[in-house]
Write a structure and sequence with these properties.
The protein starts with a helix and ends with a helix. It has 9 helices and 9 strands. With 279 residues, the protein is of the alpha/beta class.
Length: 279
């Protein structure tokens, strides 16, 4: 891992990964999509698709989590050229934030200017229910990590990037409009990112609610920080897959996460498939 982390800090790593991908498709993706646990079904709706296993791409990490396929897809979604990650990388797998966010910078090298990032999250807001879809309006980074630590990649962005609108207000408006056109409403709230992999304690959830969080998960924040550093506009969507620890009198499990995302996949598919052409 240390050698790979060292390579990632070198600018050529992004270029080499992007060159490998570009050589295998004639499409020029405009939009990136990162799909969380159980949400990779969207990949089945691409056309003109090229599939590349993560382990084939220079400098790419490999996903090790159930529900994450570990494939990069380049194709068309609703007519728009996209690059899609079926499965992401998490810091709890042993990867540093510079590796979990590495694909975002590769997407920027490919020409991506918009990013749709999705995750499965635990509901902290007690008005939420499993199966709700929540647009992320902002995040709180409780991982203690940041992908921009170390030498700044000036060609991507400034040393101190602005995060006052990490999640695009414009894109959230489009997503709300799209959901209403399909007969359902979206939640909107603050996502709090933690390191994991253990689920949070009831006391930690009470603290997170006091801090202003509506949902909690173990991904997304490093990717979004890297995206905003690259001036990529971000739309974030959380699938509330379970209620967080202590809200219901029952234990938490990853099986519940996968079952819930399976139940809401039709709404999720309609939302993303119809919002992508508007981005």
């Amino acid at each position: 891992m240390s050698n790979q982390s060292w390579n990632v800090t070198q600018g050529k790593a992004y270029e080499e990964a992007a060159a490998y991908i570009t050589a295998r498709t004639s499409l020029k993706p405009e939009i990136g999509l990162i799909l969380g646990s159980g949400l990779g079904v969207l990949g089945d709706h691409l056309t003109d698709v090229t599939t590349i296993a993560y382990e084939q791409i220079p400098h790419f990490p490999v996903s090790t989590v159930e529900g994450h396929a570990g494939e990069l897809l380049i194709g068309r979604l609703s007519g728009r050229p996209v690059v899609m990650m079926k499965g992401r990388f998490h810091m709890y797998e042993g990867y540093g934030p510079e590796l979990t966010s590495f694909p975002v910078r590769v997407m920027r090298e490919l020409g991506v200017t918009k990013l749709v990032v999705t995750n499965a999250a635990g509901g902290i807001n007690t008005s939420y229910e499993p199966g709700d879809l929540m647009l992320i309006s902002d995040h709180i980074n409780l991982t203690g990590r940041n992908p921009l630590i170390g030498p700044n990649e000036q060609r991507f962005g400034d040393r101190f990037p602005d995060m006052s609108e990490a999640y695009s207000r414009r894109l959230r408006t489009l997503a709300h409009e799209t959901a209403r056109e399909n007969g359902f409403e979206l939640r909107e709230g603050v996502y709090i990112g933690v390191l994991g992999p253990s689920y949070e304690t009831p006391a930690e959830i009470r603290m997170m609610r006091i801090l202003g969080a509506d949902a909690v998960g173990m991904s997304t924040v490093a990717e979004v920080i890297a995206a905003r550093h690259c001036k990529i506009e971000v739309l974030g969507i959380s699938c509330i897959s379970n209620m967080a620890s202590g809200i219901l009198d029952q234990p938490l499990s990853h099986t519940e996460v996968i079952e819930t995302t399976e139940r809401v996949k039709s709404r999720f598919l309609r939302l993303v498939s119809e919002v992508v052409p508007k981005l």
